[in-house]
What does this fold into?
Amino acid sequence: MMLHPLDAAIALEPAGEHCWRGRTSADWANFIGPYGGITAAQMLQAVLLHPQRLGDPVAFTVNFAAAVADGEFTVEARPARTNRSTQHWTVQMLQDGQAVTTGTVMTALRRPTWAATEAVMPQVPAPSEVVREKFRGVRWIERYDRRYLEGDVPRSWEGQDSGSSRTRSWVRDAPDRPLDFASLTAIADNFFPRIWLRRATQVPLGTVTLTVYYHAGAALLQSTGTGYVLCQAQGQGFRDGYLDQSGQLWNEAGDLLATTHQLMYYKE
Amino acid sequence: MMLHPLDAAIALEPAGEHCWRGRTSADWANFIGPYGGITAAQMLQAVLLHPQRLGDPVAFTVNFAAAVADGEFTVEARPARTNRSTQHWTVQMLQDGQAVTTGTVMTALRRPTWAATEAVMPQVPAPSEVVREKFRGVRWIERYDRRYLEGDVPRSWEGQDSGSSRTRSWVRDAPDRPLDFASLTAIADNFFPRIWLRRATQVPLGTVTLTVYYHAGAALLQSTGTGYVLCQAQGQGFRDGYLDQSGQLWNEAGDLLATTHQLMYYKE
It folds into this structure.
């Protein structure tokens, strides 16, 4: 039986205390090196596998410090502080003994409380009513069934300013796969660069840091199953080589699964 | 001459390679231990003081792993990766040899590029037209001149649901002080808990992680001087003991200085 491409990519083997060994996967190739979302999922997976883990992820920040080279890598995941119901982790991906990413993870035991959602899912057509994007370019794009509702990839690259960088799209793994923390994390990075949408110009760029806050626990992810995730993101500021975006991810039932933010480097 | 309370709080002395020693400051006391914004500023300051630093902060994430006790602390700031124009740092605050915070900082040399702001400053009355909040409760509140435009602290705590957790306020240091990376970082945490606004109930809580993306470079901060910063934040999701907020900070001229996000623990 073939492993799902996501499971194959996040398969890590123990390599000493707090260390795991993995390798990049051609299925997730980006323009240079792997898709950042899969790198993030690999780092989170080291925490998820750790025998000392307490609870489920509530927050994760990964910094892309250098290009990840194709081939082997090591992930270090160390519990920095363990409390009664929360735990703080430092994580790092290394290649040739050098950090290619840094990051932190917080896990926690969660209990039901008063709840509310102010980031309400917008009213949009169901996934079945929307055309699936055609594959193009790099391999990792094929890892998602993506259906754009707003702010899709420009059809012409003639540098017109769209005025807004908001994207809304239904997204799920391709082939489909029940949602979990690793796949949700990878999906949080699935937005194409906001500045390409805004400027219709493919300036050179790369994500430098990504944060995910997990509103869903394991049970809610499980109930989402292989359904689609509505992904929304919009740029806030673009200046002196850096732009940020703020994003939200909901399941088809309208539950807010995660919020996510990232900062991206760009040139020109 | 007396040091400004912010400068007194972030005064760190060298304590070995990559290490600085500081102490908590009564001027910044919160309900338990110090205000999180000043702890964040102290951590950033260790990077700002580091002789190997390349460029100015572009992103900072701090995780509040345990209560900071009143007294001495050590901040470790280590360059994890240095590139041609960017640098990635891991930072940690220690007390009694145990991590009380973890974090990461990214610094960079920035160059002028195409620029735009989609998070446009809302039209609001000028600071001089708005009444200053009266001091109340804990000491750190007195460290800011804060003028609420929307979503101020509830006057009655009778548990009515406000339906929205959006706050807008003009804020500057008190006494006033020219804006820089340390003070902007502290201001990014100045919002009172979104769930108190939403529920008008003082449930127990605490920030567990805070991220700041710096859109302003040193020159823009300098030109902002001792002017007010318009601070906006709103909760996105509240569930199973954790809520997140998304925020924006502009100067009086309408320049987006920073965007900020945080996740907060709450009980009940």
Helices of chain B lie at 5-9, 36-49, 181-187, 194-199, 218-224. Chain B has one domain: 5-110+117-266.
